[in-house]
Specification:
By secondary structure, the chain is of the alpha/beta class. It folds into two domains: 139 residues, NAD(P)-binding Rossmann-like Domain (Rossmann fold); 180 residues, Dihydrodipicolinate Reductase, domain 2 (2-Layer Sandwich), CATH 3.30.360. The chain has eight helices and 14 strands. It has a six-stranded parallel beta sheet with strand order 5-2-1-6-7-8, sandwiched between helices. A six-stranded mixed beta sheet has the order 10-9-11-14-13-12. The longest helix is centred in the middle third of the chain and has 17 residues. The radius of gyration is 20 Å and the shape is globular. The N and C termini lie close together (9 Å). The structure holds adenosine-2'-5'-diphosphate (A2P).
């Protein structure tokens, strides 16, 4: 059986990175199809030594192409409308938007954390929010060992998380130009708003982190709160995470658990000024963890600093890993 992959939103910040990650990981794929809006239709994109023509995403664009997987990163509105059309035609959709994440029938997956959720699906799989993904890689092994009771996230998120427009606002802001994507200047500034505000004063980004953490860790009892902030960094989200556990822990043992967990690189040596930084994480697929220290204000808790490339592990790489996992477990996932 041939494997054909469509990338929807192929001209965007995440879509381009998806193409790069797909080429790096050399999946057993026969053909690729690139889709974007009418604005990009007809453009040529060089990919794996070939020229691909970008096609307009329409309700019939997938017909006659024998597409097996479609990886979407074209915004929630586009996913809401088009993911079901692809899914209905038997195509497995891995969706990077927030559109389907909290749908009970849709697995929300970080492959290092909860790959088993992929065993039951209805052709739509959701890629979690970028900030949630890197946090999950670090929290899951600690939850397994010590049972999380409460999580406090404070994020420092790169402008690339807001797509091409966010990136341009920082580049142009340095030159003194007014922002177009953000409501306020991002150069020389921190914006304590990511996504729109809800009635209770939290932002949608904060709510995503709260809800997605519980769904992925499969535990509604964990108390989670978040403050998400956009900072003038191009690539790499940083997160200060405060955790409270049910069980007592030994700090050296806890650090070893983190160091041994899949997908984590420890950078935690204050003596040599070693700690995770966005500039080091950029263009890598791993999640970097450091500044791990006991929180003496609670019975059992820690503070730590978690950094990852938001476009790679936080989006493109995680989505491609999901497709890879399904390919490797096709029969178990109900794929003929
Ligand atoms: P296009 O480049 O044609 O506008 P980013 O988040 O970096 O801005 O990227 C968004 C991606 O989603 C781009 O590839 C963009 O295509 C694509 N996109 C946005 N709106 C639509 C739409 N209505 N239909 C298909 N693709 C879309």
């Amino acid at each position: 059986m041939s494997v054909n992959i469509a990338v929807v939103g192929a001209t965007g910040m995440v879509g381009r990175k998806m193409l790069q990650v797909l080429s790096e990981r050399n999946l057993p794929v026969d053909n690729y199809y690139l889709f974007a809006s009418a604005r990009s239709a007809g453009k040529t994109v060089q990919f794996m030594g070939r020229d691909y023509t970008v096609e307009e995403l329409t309700e019939t664009c997938m017909d006659g192409k024998d597409i097996t997987y479609a990886i979407f990163s074209a915004g929630a509105g586009t996913s809401l409308k088009f993911a079901p059309i692809f899914a209905e035609k038997g195509i497995i959709v891995v969706d990077n938007s927030s559109a389907w994440r909290m749908d009970e029938t849709v697995p929300l997956v970080v492959p290092e954390v909860n790959p088993d959720a992929l065993l039951s699906h209805h052709n739509i799989i959701a890629n979690p929010n970028c900030s949630t993904i890197q946090a999950m890689v670090a929290l899951k092994p600690l939850h397994d060992a010590y049972t999380l009771r409460r999580v406090v996230y404070s994020t420092y998120q790169a402008v690339s998380g807001a797509g091409m427009g966010g990136f341009a606002d920082l580049e142009n802001g340095i030159k003194g130009e007014a922002p177009k994507k953000f409501n306020h200047p991002i150069f020389g500034n921190c914006l304590p708003q990511i996504d729109s505000f809800l009635d209770d004063g939290y932002t949608k980004e904060e709510l995503k982190m709260i809800n997605e953490t519980k769904k992925i860790l499969h535990d509604n009892e964990i108390k989670v709160t978040a403050t998400t902030v956009r900072v003038p960094v191009y690539y790499g989200h940083s997160e200060s995470i405060n955790l409270e556990f049910e069980k007592q822990f030994d700090l050296d043992e806890l650090k070893k658990i983190l160091a041994d967990a899949p997908g984590i690189v420890m950078a935690d040596d204050p003596a040599s000024l070693s700690y995770p930084m966005a500039c080091d994480a950029a263009d890598h697929d791993e999640v970097y963890v450091g500044r791990v220290r006991r929180d003496d204000t609670v019975e059992s808790g820690i503070n730590m600093w978690v950094v990852a490339d938001n476009i790679r592990k936080g989006a493109a790489t995680n989505a491609v890993q999901i497709a890879e996992w399904i390919m490797a477990h096709a029969e178990e996932c109900g794929i003929k």
